[in-house]
Design a protein that fits this description.
It comes from Kitasatospora phosalacinea. This is 4Fe-4S Wbl-type domain-containing protein. With 156 residues, the protein is of the alpha+beta class. The chain is 26% helix and 32% strand. A 6-stranded antiparallel beta sheet has the order 1-2-3-4-5-6. Helix 1 runs parallel beside helix 2. The longest helix has 20 residues. The protein is globular, with a radius of gyration of 16 Å.
Length: 156
């Protein structure tokens, strides 16, 4: 998969009907700021990228991580139900999750702790705005629990 930083890519690759890509700059900045805030709160890293597979653009995705919980956020292009190839949107599907690393001896990867209900969007501005709002929701969920509480989510 090829990734391009959110501020270096062409949004029309994921949103082909978008006449003026500059309309996405405010919600893209807000989404990047939300991811940065999440990561800085926990001393971790973050990124927001345009993702492309060999068959075409697949998502706008981001993460913010720290030593405990982290956030995953994606805005997916529609997919061909048979070949799973990305298709031009709309609709675009939003997914946002709060995760922790498994603490069991046989590490199974990530445990999803909170998940925002998936939603579909027909409008690119509304979709990217919802991505930023979803990351802010994830940070609120994380801050609502005491720091030590995250360890219990890392066990089966």
């Amino acid at each position: 998969m090829q990734t391009t930083r959110w501020d270096e890519g062409d949004p029309r690759r994921l949103f082909p009907g978008l006449d003026d890509p500059s309309v996405l700059l405010p919600p893209l900045r807000a989404a990047a700021d939300a991811l940065r805030t999440f990561a800085e709160r926990f001393g971790g890293a973050w990124q927001l990228t345009w993702d492309e597979v060999p068959l075409g653009p697949s998502a706008l995705s981001g993460y913010a991580e720290g030593p405990g919980p982290w956030c995953e956020a994606e805005l997916w292009a529609p997919r061909d139900p048979v070949g799973w190839a990305p298709l031009p949107g709309p609709p675009w599907e939003l997914g946002v999750r709060v995760c922790v690393r498994c603490a069991e001896p046989d590490d199974c990867g990530a445990h999803y702790v909170h998940e925002l209900e998936e939603r579909s969007f027909d409008d690119p501005v509304a979709a990217v705005t919802a991505l930023g709002a979803g990351v802010r929701w994830a940070l609120e969920r994380v801050l609502a629990e005491p720091p030590g509480a995250w360890a219990r989510h890392a066990r089966h």
